[in-house]
Amino acid sequence: MHFSGLRVVKEALTGHRGWKPLWRNPDPKPDYDIVIVGGGGHGLATAYYLAKTFGKTRVAVLEKGWLGSGNIGRNTTIIRSNYLLPGNEPFYEFSMKLWEGLEQDLNFNAMVSQRGIINLFHTDAQRDAFRRRGNAMLLAGADARLLDQNALRQILPYLNYDNARFPIKGGLMQPRGGTARHDGVAWGYARGADLRGVDLIQNCEVTGFRIENGAIRGVETARGFIGAKTVGVAVAGNSGRVMAMAGQRLPIESHVLQAFVTEGLKPLIDTVITFGAGHFYVSQSDKGGLVFGGDIDGYNSYAQRGNLPVVEDVAEGGMALMPMIGRARLLRSWGGVMDMSMDGSPIIDRTGIAGLYVNGGWCYGGFKATPASGYAFAHLLATDRPHATATAYRLDRFARGFVIDEKGVGAHPNLH
What we know:
By secondary structure, the chain is an alpha/beta fold. The chain has 11 helices and 19 strands. The protein has helices spanning 5-13, 41-52, 89-100, 102-106, 124-139, 149-155, 182-195, 239-244, 308-321, 370-383, 397-400; strands spanning 34-37, 59-62, 78-79, 117-121, 145-148, 170-174, 178-179, 199-201, 206-212, 215-221, 224-227, 230-233, 252-262, 272-275, 280-284, 290-300, 330-341, 347-350, 356-360. The strands form 4 sheets. Strands 5-6-4-14-15-16-13-17 form an 8-stranded mixed beta sheet. Strands 8-2-1-12-19-18 form a 6-stranded mixed beta sheet.
């Protein structure tokens, strides 16, 4: 079924009786060429690019719940490529370019909104660091603008510029950054993969891996054994315990990251704003709610919920940035499980078991990386070679001393 404006008008005039399900709900086959564990954004994007770009259609995506029930539907929807280090910036800029053509590619409304993102700075040293980051972005082909306070006031007049502790002196803007509809991204990739013959199998939890002579032979699931000589694992915050079933120990920790949305308000924030003196970021949804988040909870957890001290801390960050936010009522909150790597950067690589590959360690960067992660992982599964933009994301970089410490806080996952 092709989506178009004319189709919407036709269905409106005929009682919306012509819409069909976006994807099939097949039973698993005995074996596939490639099995992808995880039916979230990265797994679905991987399946889509495997079929579309590499011609691999005997592919199954296995999801223990429903498609998009994990982090892809539990985030703050921000897309950007404002990274500093050469191991990261080309990859995220590749992702941004894929975002820009995503809706046309998928023929699906993912509500990609390039409204811009502004990272605020509060000291001269922070300004200099952001200038360096902006120059690195420009050298990698991205876009960046350094805004002084006067220029920033023209865009965001409602911020608390004269805060005694955190005076706002300017910001680094990436005009091409913005937001996208998180579950719309999952649905679009799922529909695109299904149209190309990929089997999307829901309620099919992987319970183990069958490994013979150091090579993968398939996966044990709640719906029986499924054979495959190539298996890719993309399960976000559950990477550690899923890979443990294959005897693999990953250099990651799992933490909860909470997000929040207020009641609907009149249009106010037409960009994405991040607070440079505390961990707080905010945008406004199409329904009018302010969507924001901050630090992860400080303890390891697999629960999709957080605790109240972090709610208080995030609210304090918002109040320091724009006191008017204190008049808004918090409508709801949720939590995603972050797989925090030791250097704050992701892992896309083969493992020591032939045919078994892993995609994880995304920390805060998972949603914005969805298109590039899927493409790079599909490239790796199809060719057994890393994609040109993901060569730095090797699993053994910690042993080799080639870490990508974007934030410069060392091997402390809770700080990334």
